[in-house]
Amino acid sequence: DGGITQSPKYLFRKEGQNVTLSCEQNLNHDAMYWYRQDPGQGLRLIYYSQIVNDFQKGDIAEGYSVSREKKESFPLTVTSAQKNPTAFYLCASTRGAGWADTQYFGPGTRLTVL
Amino acid sequence: DQQVKQNSPSLSVQEGRISILNCDYTNSMFDYFLWYKKYPAEGPTFLISISSIKDKNEDGRFTVFLNKSAKHLSLHIVPSQPGDSAVYFCAASAGNNDMRFGAGTRLTVKP
Q1: Cα–Cα distance for residue pair B106/B77, rounded to 1 Å
Q2: Residue in B closest to A9 by C-alpha
């Protein structure tokens, strides 16, 4: 079955610690995205990558970092510089690099900072 | 800066009736609109889309209407079924710029 997997489903972190959220896709999609969802707000774009070894900042990239060393993998690191990291994080991919392409989402990771 | 707004956080409808979910946007450059559906503990899944050159797109029980002059789109579900209970996100993009999402509307269809 093709799809996007995110792990872990729930993640707890102490303040001051970096944590990495995994996102893997076996859809052979070119582009991958990270979004953050907070209560009462739409999905906000953190980073996106339209091609391997290249990525771009979204609206709220501060305090986050990514890498795209392989087409199928796009891990997101939440650093200690992120002031309010507790949120629901969604990874997505699209077949092509166009923004009008249908986005396929993973199940999400809920990060809680203790 | 919320360019895409879903002003109703929740909607409750009786099974068999019509569900109407609304979405307003502020950016007149948006030319492609999508609706995503999200069940608990799952990521959003694509439901239906519409290009700005159309004012209506239909797919089975789902129809999306676009009113460009009012910068408004709506999703109609007829007839509504209990399995339609989910959170619905409206999204919009402008050319090759990133997609903007609304905050979502939680639809509950009561048997």
Answers
A1: 14
A2: B41
- Omega of the bond leading into A85 within 30 degrees of 0 (cis): no
Interchain CB distance below 8 Å, A100 and B102: no
Inter-chain touch B45–A105, beta carbons under 8 Å: yes
**Residues in contact with B60: Cβ distance below 8 Å, sequence separation at least 6, in sequence order:** none
Shortest distance between the Cα of A108 and any Cα of chain B, in A, equals 6
A102 CA to chain B: closest CA distance, Å?
7
In this predicted structure, what is the pLDDT of residue A40? 79
Q: Which residues contact B36 (CB under 8 A, 6 or more apart)?
A: A103, A105, B44, B45, B46, B47, B88, B89, B91, B101
Integer Cα distance of B107 and B1 in angstroms:
25
**Mean pLDDT in residue range A23-39:** 94
Residue of B nearest to A40 (CA): B103
Q: Would the pLDDT of A97 be above 90?
A: no
Confirm or reject contact between B93 and chain A (CB < 8 A).
yes
> A102 to chain B: which residues are within 8 Å by CB?
34, 46, 49
Contact yes or no for B43 and A58 at CB 8 A: no
Cβ neighbours of residue A54 closer than 8 Å, sequence gap 6 or more: A68
**What would the pLDDT profile of B11-58 be if each residue is shown by its tens digit?**
999 999 999 999 999 999 999 999 999 998 788 999 999 999 999 999
What average pLDDT does this structure show over A44-65?
94
Structure token digits, residue B6: 């879903």
Residue A5 in this model has a pLDDT that exceeds 70: yes
